[in-house]
Design brief:
The chain starts with 7 loop residues before the first strand and ends with a strand. The chain contains 2 helices and 63 strands. Strands 23-24-25-26-30-29-28-27 form an 8-stranded mixed sheet, with no helix packed on it. Strands 5-38-37-36-35 form a 5-stranded mixed sheet, with no helix packed on it. The chain is mainly beta and 787 residues long.
Length: 787
């Protein structure tokens, strides 16, 4: 069940990919072997993508490519460009009061006064607001107008900070720390997780970005937090998955981020007086037998660090720190328990060399299910700027429908030698669940911001009876997983979203929430579009009203084997409307088939050899009686129907020329050039020596990775589409870009311009309008005309 950009992917019988053990997270799965990556691997891949993209543009205009690694002097637009379809916002979201939602936002930087803000989205780059969060604008897509500007390529963000005296100076840590534990095991039944390309800086409010050096290289790592010295803006401290880093002047000029301490640092904060700046950081132990958790501080710009206080719990899991900007002595630490993610406690320090004191009477910030919670994914704290005895705590969800944000206001008072929560109030239910940060507008106790899986929210009266309000208009960073399309009206689209359910649009960039949970596959009955199926959290939901709202759905529960389970129907064929009633759903090794579009499930069959073949992760109908399936272990099956019986044949191991690749098959696409419907393409996730795309001609397998110079990159490839009108044209969506081959996968080129650098999870060709649609995991849905 390993999914990963780091799971070794290699040909059976070939050389074993060099691997290293990575610790498991609280999810409790066995530690996998993951491929060891060179320092700077992701940066090198993105730079190669930029070069190939520039070369592809010049190739299409028949101009000679300039020499030199970054020698493209100007941008030459392609004939076609990708167009965003939204969602720019999803209305009727999963909160009390149905607030509009955006995508997952890791951190927020707020300038004094609260008008200028920067949101570091998890998978969609940085967004800027100049009107207090009323509207947002994406700031990391400029590389599309200058494809050689490498540094703005990464849109995976974990931390952001600004110079409070000049909000145009912005620092970004790429790679999302909040999903760091999930990244360590990258499993198919959990949230996808990505790393970044190191630290970035902008001096003009995000218009242009500069990549800064780091040692050891932070490319391929993740950031949890950044803290800028308010008295010296070039001094910045970073808490990362690869240690604690300080930005300082380098001997040869410029600046470099240098590691000061090893380990996973989950938090860093800063407080300053007129004469002193103090940074405080927190070490998140990954192994209780070798490393103790701890809090440390520095008063010299991060050059030396000293243990902060005494009596801090050595067995702490993830730690979130809170201070007031002008008080270097009072520090709070919100702690999740190691191994379970449950709440371990809140601790307070009143003097930098004093004793940490426990805070009793804690509210239910991290609700527990089966002994587990999500403190290693969402954990945050903010201290009231005007009152050190008032703190705000953020966690996972409030235990009421529709399970919105867990945000608590706590009044702290002494209790013997320690402290206790004298009173607490749940104030987050109008915000989305899974809170990643809480931050005040500088110096303003009446403006408290929240970032979460649903975007950005603002509470203008957190000290009394204020509620959080959505600030998500234009925050187009939703993590789309899969698409569903109306067969004739191209304006009607469905997309399954990470933690934001399923959304629908009938036209325009504002979409409507129609189903909750973690959205997956969507399927529209092409003969009767009033019938719609969507997937969420192991359940298939069926609508007979076109899926226009949350009302009127019936549901079928299946064994929940993978985070998103495929739901597929036969190819569009208006001459045979009865075919549209057929639908198949995969649940582990079992396939369920319905002949009445999920009113009932009259048939089921299993893949041979049980769990040894992995779970079915991708499926595609070649005809109403032929279904192809790919699994999490690289096995491919063809199922042929006779009456109500399905005969399953394994085809990855054909004697004439076996596939022989071990790894996750992310997608299967029928080769429409084969009139016998025996040929398919498959795409692989993982990383290693094997090709990313393979073609089966009905008798043997062939690599379709391309030739050197026109080959696919060694990243996860997640989606395939074969043009049914012109089947020599094959498209593949990857973690980096969409790629096109016009010769059946023998040569590949970056496909056109305008697509942000978010991972592409799904590709669909509209059956009647000749449009290619892409679901990006971090920037919503895009389309481009094919003719």
């Amino acid at each position: 069940m390993i999914e990963t950009g780091h799971t070794p992917l290699g040909e059976s019988g070939g050389a074993v990919v060099a691997a290293a053990n990575i610790p498991t997270s609280r999810l409790g799965f066995a530690a996998p072997k993951v491929a060891a990556l060179s320092s700077g691997y992701w940066r090198e891949l993105l730079l190669e993508y930029k070069r190939r993209k520039a070369s592809s543009v010049w190739r299409r205009v028949a101009a000679p490519m300039p020499t030199g690694s970054l020698a493209v002097p100007t941008f030459i637009p392609a004939e076609r460009s990708w167009v965003p379809l939204g969602p720019t916002v999803v209305i009727n979201g999963q909160t009390v009061g149905n607030q509009p939602v955006g995508g997952r936002v890791a951190r927020l930087a707020v300038a004094p006064g609260g008008s200028v803000l920067y949101a570091a989205s998890a998978n969609g780059g940085v967004f800027r607001s100049a009107d207090g969060g009323t509207t947002w604008r994406a700031m990391m897509d400029r590389f599309d107008t200058d494809p050689t500007t490498f540094a703005s390529a990464s849109v995976i963000c974990g931390a952001i900070a600004i110079d409070p005296s000049d909000p145009n100076r912005v620092y970004v840590g790429t790679g999302e720390g909040d999903t760091s534990q999930l990244f360590r095991i990258r499993i198919v039944n959990a949230l996808p997780a990505y790393r970044g390309v190191g630290p970035l800086r902008s001096d003009d409010g995000g218009v242009t970005w500069i990549s800064e050096a780091s040692a050891p290289d932070l490319a391929g790592e993740a950031f949890f937090a950044l803290a800028v010295d308010p008295r010296a803006r070039d001094t910045v401290i970073a808490a990362t998955s690869n240690g604690l880093y300080a930005r300082a002047a380098s001997a040869g000029g410029g600046f470099e981020w240098k590691r000061q301490r090893e380990g996973v640092f989950s938090s860093v904060v800063v407080a300053a007086t007129t004469t002193t700046t103090r940074f405080v950081c927190a070490l998140w132990t990954q192994d209780l037998t070798t490393t103790a958790a701890g809090v440390f501080h520095s008063d010299d710009g991060g050059q030396t660090w000293t243990a902060t206080g005494t009596g801090f719990p050595a067995d702490a899991g993830r730690i979130a720190l809170g201070v007031r900007a002008d008080d270097p002595n009072t520090v709070y630490a919100l702690v999740a328990a190691h191994g379970t993610g449950t709440l371990q406690g809140l601790y307070r320090l009143d003097a930098i060399a004093g004793n940490w004191k426990t805070v009793g009477g804690m509210p239910d910030v991290l609700p527990v299910q089966n002994g587990q919670s999500q403190g290693d994914y969402d954990l945050s704290i903010a201290v009231d700027p005007a009152d050190p005895n008032r703190v705000y705590l953020g966690g996972s969800y409030a235990n009421l429908e529709p399970f919105p944000a867990s945000i608590w206001r706590c009044e702290i008072t002494p209790s013997g030698a320690n402290y206790t929560v004298a009173s607490s109030a749940s104030i987050g239910t109008h915000a989305h669940a899974d809170v990643h940060s809480l931050v005040h507008t500088p110096g303003d106790p009446d403006e408290l911001w929240c970032t979460c899986d649903g975007g950005v929210f603002l509470n203008r009266a957190p000290r009394s009876d204020g509620e959080f309000a959505s600030q998500n208009n234009g925050l187009a960073c939703l993590c789309s997983n899969f698409l569903g399309q109306h067969p004739t009206d191209p304006n009607i689209l469905f997309t399954g979203l990470q933690d934001n359910g399923t959304a629908r649009t009938a036209a325009g960039p504002v979409w409507t929430h129609i189903m909750g949970g973690d959205g997956g596959y969507c399927l529209v009955n092409w003969a009767d579009p009033s019938q719609v199926l969507v997937f969420a959290n192991g359940t298939v939901y069926r609508s007979t009203t076109g899926g226009t709202s949350e009302d009127g759905w019936t549901m079928w529960n299946f064994p929940w084997a993978t985070m998103t389970q495929p739901i597929v129907g036969p190819p569009y064929n208006p001459g045979r409307p009865s075919d549209a009633q057929i639908v198949a759903v995969a649940a582990g090794q079992r396939i369920f088939v319905s002949d009445d579009f999920a009113q009932s499930w009259g048939q089921k069959f299993d893949t041979p050899n049980g769990a040894a073949v992995g779970a079915v992760f991708a499926m595609s109908f070649a005809s109403p009686t032929r279904l192809f399936m790919g699994t999490t272990t690289g096995k491919v099956f063809r199922a042929d129907r006779a009456g109500t019986t399905w005969r399953v044949t394994q085809i990855d191991n054909v004697a004439a020329g076996a596939l022989n690749v071990n790894g996750l098959i992310t997608d299967v696409a029928v080769d429409w050039a084969d009139a016998n419907r025996q040929s398919v393409y498959v795409a692989f996730g993982g990383m290693g020596t094997a090709a990313r795309v393979w073609w089966f001609d009905g008798a043997r397998w062939h690599s379709r990775n391309g030739v050197p110079g026109n080959n696919l990159l060694n990243v996860e490839h997640n989606a395939l589409a074969v043009d049914p009108v012109a089947p020599d044209n094959v498209y593949v969506g990857a973690d980096i870009g969409v790629w096109h081959s016009d010769d059946r996968g023998q040569n590949w080129h970056v496909f056109e311009n305008g697509l942000p650098g978010a991972p592409v999870f799904d590709l669909q060709i509209h059956p009647t309008q000749r449009l290619l649609r892409a679901a990006t995991h971090g920037r919503g849905v895009y389309e481009i005309p094919l003719s």
